[in-house]
Amino acid sequence: MTKSRLEAFSDGVLAIAITIMVLELRPPEDGYTLKSLLELLPTFLSYVLSFIYVGIYWNNHHHMFHLADKINGAVLWKNLNLLFWLSLFPFTTAWMDKNYTQPLPVAVYGFVLAMAAVAYLILQKELIKAGGPNCKLAQAVGTDSKGKISGVLYLAGISASFIATWISITLYTIVALIWFIPDKRIEKFYADDNEI
Amino acid sequence: MTKSRLEAFSDGVLAIAITIMVLELRPPEDGYTLKSLLELLPTFLSYVLSFIYVGIYWNNHHHMFHLADKINGAVLWKNLNLLFWLSLFPFTTAWMDKNYTQPLPVAVYGFVLAMAAVAYLILQKELIKAGGPNCKLAQAVGTDSKGKISGVLYLAGISASFIATWISITLYTIVALIWFIPDKRIEKFYADDNEI
Amino acid sequence: MTKSRLEAFSDGVLAIAITIMVLELRPPEDGYTLKSLLELLPTFLSYVLSFIYVGIYWNNHHHMFHLADKINGAVLWKNLNLLFWLSLFPFTTAWMDKNYTQPLPVAVYGFVLAMAAVAYLILQKELIKAGGPNCKLAQAVGTDSKGKISGVLYLAGISASFIATWISITLYTIVALIWFIPDKRIEKFYADDNEI
Amino acid sequence: MTKSRLEAFSDGVLAIAITIMVLELRPPEDGYTLKSLLELLPTFLSYVLSFIYVGIYWNNHHHMFHLADKINGAVLWKNLNLLFWLSLFPFTTAWMDKNYTQPLPVAVYGFVLAMAAVAYLILQKELIKAGGPNCKLAQAVGTDSKGKISGVLYLAGISASFIATWISITLYTIVALIWFIPDKRIEKFYADDNEI
Fold first, then answer.
1. Most buried by CB count within 10 Å: which residue of B29, C115, D3, D20?
2. Nearest to D20 among C7, C19, C58 (CB)
3. Residues 6 or more apart whose Cβ sits within 8 Å of residue C165
4. Which of the residues C26, C84, C88, C135 would you substitute to probe the B interface, choosing the one with the greatest number of B C-beta atoms within 10 Å?
């Protein structure tokens, strides 16, 4: 029961993060031509990338709490910490799409992505601590090589922004693709449960 | 339990899509006359059309998941794909209502409507695949003539925008009316269940 | 189960209606004085009135669906109709607070309040029709004298706006107060249930 | 069942309050430099403080309703009263971050914080009244020394804003820290329940 309330509140914040991002996608002021539409392309592509990131977090959050048995006061706060970093996505997305050739906005975008990933890991650790070392979540997570690769790619992306921003954006996109592909370990657990 | 979380998140995004659309309906800057109110008519009518579309998607989504027995990781992503296209409604609505006599904004409005319809069909297919060929949803959907007619009308509407935009808008409205009328097949299933 | 999804979606739209209204309450551009704060008073008071109205609808919606036994496809659409009119509150509130001495914005504010009330009655009727003449909701509603008095006051308020807008605003406030006071009939039903 | 709807609606309003606050955090208009980013620091810090406050209210609201056994019509309205004051956070946050050296905006920020705290106590009292003097919530709340200290600090903060605003902001931050630290009494109750 209480788990469902934490999930509902998180869903609310995530749904709203998507909203604020799409608010950036304003119709061209006086234009109705193909040219004016194409000028929105960087904004549109930034929106797509951030939408996929929020989608990944929503899916993983969903999976993680499905497997979690127990929650406590520390979990609530560590979940709020994750939501805090996710709530900054609209800001960093808007800043980057207007300045996608400038190092700082692209680095800050990557920094917030990385902080959200760290916040996610902290939350996961707290859930495993609450559930005990033999809980379903602990077994499903295992060695977490995806998380380690992501960490390296984020660092590389943030650094690369001071050389060429397209490298950074490519690296951020690769991290999204890595997570987009469903996680065999967790899918296996679902198969055992025979329902998601 | 998990189905309900997917529904809750979708409801959040849909409720927010409505919000952003109504945000376009700004009170006239310095006006308090009937004339200044009537100038908002295109914006108001676009809002009504898009509200009905979101309402249709909410109702059908509701019905579809009511009949769905099983969900999995692929369903989550295909649902997010539908939400992505629905999240673009506020953008295309705002662009069309300011340029309702211009081909491109009206064609783009129809294109996003059509893509949402395609995303809905993809989601439906995945749910039927997850539930098996004899699941309740598979039986309720049947030949899906409504879906086929809508596809033709969307294509006609998008093409017509380059001739006369009022034809396109009429065709989009007709699709809305087709779906507005309750679906006998699905209502029948509810009647059998004796509850919605 | 399905009733809860309808409630959740309605809650989403209502929560968002409150949001958009409070968005109107912008901090004074360059001011930090008492004078600049007091200039926001009409906006603040309009917000308070509309907040109370949304609160009343939320409470009554809550009570009504608590007593409703059955819902069907027609209920979904009639609920969406109510949400449509409630979604216009932010627009009419924003227009009125900028023009609270002008007849049209004040009349339109009252018109949308009245349409929401009508939509509520239509929804209530559909729920009673679905539940049958002896359902709990039918007994709780009874003769509905509150509804009838509100109708008269709304009509008087809309008409009065063309004489003096403060009369209209007073009448709208009186309707809010009438509904604010808890409904003995429905409270009685709760008492019988011994839980809300 | 009904308790969960009240919680869901409250979550919606809280999630949206966070949204509107983060909307204030606009990317710098024409800047992509560190200087332009640092200019956002007061806005960012105000956002962090208000985010923590909303997080505290969400957590405490969560805990309080977890322990509450019965709710009634009066609880619904007293909950709406709390939501009303919380819905003003985005306004007071936006006003303060633009004028953090001016007494009035800083005093008003503290006043709304204090009113939310009062609204919370009123709601808590109503829940205890509904549950009876021996209900779990009544036992968990006890003498409520935290509440009393907060009241004193809010009053001191509001008064101090007319001397030096940094004192006020420090005091508001101290109140947040007091509540941030988990409440032993309530955690104890959870431990007894062996689940949150």
1. D20
2. C19
3. C100, C101, C102, C103, C106
4. C84
- Cα C171 to its chain centre, rounded Å, is 14
pLDDT tens, residue by residue, C4-49: 778 877 887 787 778 778 877 888 877 888 888 888 898 899 899 9
Residues in chain A: 196
- B32/C75 touch (CB, cutoff 8 Å), yes or no: no
Residues of D whose CB is below 8 A from A4: 4
Distant-in-sequence, close-in-space partners of B157: CB < 8 Å, separation ≥ 6 = B110, B167, B168, B169, B171, B172, B175
Secondary structure (DSSP) of B42-106: HHHHHHHHHHHHHHHHHHHHHHHHHH-----HHHHHHHHHHHHHHHTHHHHHHHHHH-TTSHHHH
Q: How far is CA C55 from CA A101, C60, D10, D47, in A?
A: 47, 9, 12, 27
How high is the ipTM of this complex? Answer: 0.83
Residue in this structure with the two tokens 């007849």, named with its chain if needed: C103
Total Cβ atoms within 10 A of residue A44: 16
Q: In whole angstroms, what is the distance from residue D145 CA to residue D110 CA?
A: 20
Contact call for C23 and D20, based on CB within 8 A: yes
pLDDT tens track, chain D, 196 positions: 467 778 877 887 787 788 778 877 888 877 888 888 888 898 899 899 989 998 888 888 888 888 887 788 888 889 989 989 998 998 999 899 889 999 999 999 999 999 999 999 999 999 888 888 888 888 877 777 788 888 899 999 999 999 999 999 999 999 998 887 765 555 555 554 434 3
Residue carrying structure tokens 């960087």: A42
Check: CB of residue D87 under 8 Å from CB of residue D100. no
Q: Are B106 and B165 in contact (CB under 8 A)?
A: yes
Residue B173, token pair as written in the block: 């409205």
Q: Do C76 and B66 touch (CB under 8 A)?
A: no
Torsion sign, CA atoms C182, C183, C186, C187 = positive
CA distance linking residue C115 with residue D60, whole number of Å: 38
Residues of C in contact with D84 (CB under 8 A): 48, 51
Give yes or no for a contact between C157 and C172, defined as CB atoms under 8 angstroms apart: yes
Say if CB D23 and CB A20 are below 8 A apart.
yes
What is the rounded distance in angstroms from the CA atom of residue B40 to the CA atom of residue B8?
A: 33
For residues A4 and C4, give the distance between their C-alpha atoms in angstroms, rounded to a whole number: 14
Closest CA to D138 of D59, D55, D69: D69
Burial (CB < 10 A; 0-12, 13-18, 19+), residue A140, is buried
Q: Which among B61, B44, B67, B168 is positioned nearest to B116, based on CA atoms?
A: B61
Does D182 sit within 8 Å of A74, measured CB to CB? yes
CA count, 13 A, side-chain hemisphere, D126: 19
- Contact flag C19-B15 (C-beta cutoff 8 Å): no
Subunit partners of chain D (3 or more CB pairs within 8 A): A, C
pTM, two decimal places: 0.85
Check: CB of residue C70 under 8 Å from CB of residue C130: yes
